[in-house]
Write a structure and sequence with these properties.
Helix content is about 65%, strand content about 10%. Helix 18 packs across helix 19.
């Protein structure tokens, strides 16, 4: 029996041009009209669920050496899971023996789809079982299927068996060190070592080694696509280990490679990572500039997942930048894109958190509270990102005030944050909580560690917020010289970042420090500047508080 070949849509595209496809379509219609084909009416198999059925379409060419069956599943509920509602495959058989010759996978772009990953993983694992059942099966075909399962990790689809799949794929290719699929598996291994892994299972050093080895191998075989994927893995490692300058550097290195591919999803993925790196480094204008053309391209191509991610990321960037109206525009774009996509994404929680903070800062207390109450009932993401749910609630909750509301959220976020990046985010917010409610035990526990983490990350907003919170702590303890050094550094960073609300809060802290130092005139000057910033930024509650201090 001949070996079955399992062909991906990429394999077909590599050998079949549009001109070929048009010509062959014409040939097929000519053969159909001349009676050279046998094509019975398609068979419909209706499931016991509404809007979920399967179609089987056999056909043959009488004088050809083979025949085939096309299978199509139409499951409309997949849209709610972020999966395509249409999935298909074509099985080709030998005309002499009836044995299978090739399975053409037609899985759409499911590995890039949003939401639940179960359908895609089941499809690939089912193909693996088919491959295993064949009397004669090529190792290269099995390795390709295991590689596809392994690569899902890169796109955020964690599977407990991912590591097992990657290792099995590498074993099958142990005698083919230069195989392109082996290169892809090495790069997939890099992502698997860290992405969506609990800290106890993550190995960042091994991930970096694997990504660099994958890049070297990709260079050796001249695969620009794999070089781009390896640099993407490296950028992700530096993101999760909070090494933001390295994250930006490898992403900028990836840029020309990705641009040369002419592959829209790869380009958009690169631009999204670059926008994040700029934001972490306080380069908010650069982040926005990168995202605008990315959004336009995704919109033109109706790439809904990309549109959702860009909208959510940029809403967050503009909240960090204290551009509340622009943040609201991105939130509205996100909601419109979610309607167009036809499903709700876990990203919706982030949008609600951003809106709640913007409303709280501007004094829209009822709207902020309503959003805050809605977050716990929203669609959750992967368990490894569970820390982001209480974190997203805590951000606006601190602005709104209320120790009873904030304390349990902080406790949960601290418990769940177990990666370097997550700990940086949560501990920095914990210091803001400590400064707001004078919970100095938090500063005693990890204040110095958090500032050290922020400095190592070289993220100026993280450093500035730590400095402002530590200045409040030192002032409360009467260590005024230390408070002065911290608040001065924080103000300088906030000015550089051009974050008017954050700067106003730091100036208010400076004014309180100057009052403690009996320097009333300087305190009044700091308060007047803070009031101007708050008024221009539409921040009513803080403006009213400053006005009261000036009276």
């Amino acid at each position: 029996m001949p070996q079955i070949r399992i062909l991906s849509r990429e394999d077909v595209r590599a050998i079949l041009t549009w001109d070929d496809a048009i010509r062959l379509q014409g040939d097929a219609f000519a053969m159909l009209s001349s009676g050279r084909t046998l094509m019975p009416v398609k068979t419909l198999l209706q499931t016991d669920r509404p809007k979920a059925h399967m179609l089987f379409m056999p056909a043959l060419i009488k004088d050809a050496q083979g025949f085939g069956v096309k299978y199509v599943a139409d499951f409309h509920d997949n849209l709610a899971r972020g999966l395509p509602h249409l999935m298909a495959a074509i099985l080709l058989m030998d005309g002499e023996t009836g044995g299978p010759v090739a399975l053409l996978e037609e899985l759409g772009d499911m590995r890039l789809a949003a939401g639940r990953r179960d359908g895609t993983i089941r499809a690939y694992e089912g193909a693996v079982q088919l491959w295993k059942s064949l009397p004669v099966a090529a190792n290269s075909d099995g390795a390709r299927l295991y590689r596809k399962l392994g690569e899902l990790c890169r796109w955020g689809w964690y599977n407990p068996k991912t590591r097992e799949h990657i290792q099995e794929g590498l074993r099958l290719l142990s005698d083919a060190p230069d195989s392109p699929d082996r290169v892809k598996l090495v790069i997939a291994q890099a992502s698997d070592y860290y992405w969506l892994r609990p800290e106890a299972e993550a190995d960042y050093a091994a991930a970096e080694t694997s990504a660099r080895e994958g890049f070297r191998l990709a260079q050796a075989i001249g695969s620009a696509e794999d070089m781009s994927a390896a640099l993407d893995a490296l950028a992700g490692i530096y993101w999760q280990t909070a090494q933001f300058p390295k994250m930006r550097a490898v992403t900028e290195e990836r840029g020309p490679i990705g641009e040369g591919l002419g592959y829209a999803l790869e380009r958009l993925d690169y631009l999204a990572m670059l926008a994040r790196a700029h934001a972490f480094l306080g380069e908010f204008a650069a982040s926005a500039a990168v995202s605008q053309p990315a959004y336009a391209e995704a919109d033109r191509r109706s790439l809904h997942l990309s549109l959702l991610h860009i909208s959510a990321d940029q809403a967050g960037v503009h909240v960090l930048w204290n551009r509340w109206e622009e943040a609201e525009r991105w939130c509205s774009r996100y909601e419109e894109n979610e309607r167009r996509a036809g499903y709700e994404s876990p990203l919706h929680r982030r949008i609600t958190s951003h809106r709640a903070k913007a409303d709280a800062v501007r004094g829209n207390t009822e709207a902020a509270l309503e959003a805050l109450r809605a977050i716990p009932d929203m669609l959750s993401g992967h368990p490894a990102l569970a820390w982001s749910r209480p974190f997203g609630q805590l951000i606006p909750a601190i602005v709104l005030g209320g120790r009873e509301r904030c304390a349990p959220l902080l406790e949960e976020a601290l418990r769940l944050a177990d990666t370097p990046y997550a700990r940086l985010e949560v501990q920095c917010l914990a210091l803001e909580y400590a400064a707001r409610f004078q919970e100095w035990r938090i500063v005693d526990e990890f204040g110095d560690d958090t500032l050290a983490r922020a400095r190592r990350s070289e993220g100026p907003l993280f450093i500035a917020r730590c400095c402002r919170a530590l200045a409040t702590h030192r002032r409360a303890l009467g260590r005024l010289d230390e408070a002065d050094a911290f608040v001065t550094e924080g103000i300088a960073l906030f000015r550089r970042l051009d974050c008017p609300w954050e700067l106003g809060l730091a100036l208010r802290e400076l004014a309180l420090l100057r009052m403690a130092q009996s320097r009333a005139q300087e305190a009044a000057g700091a308060l007047r500047e803070a009031l101007t910033l708050f008024d221009r930024n539409g921040v009513r509650p803080d403006a009213e508080q400053i006005s009261a201090l000036l009276q």
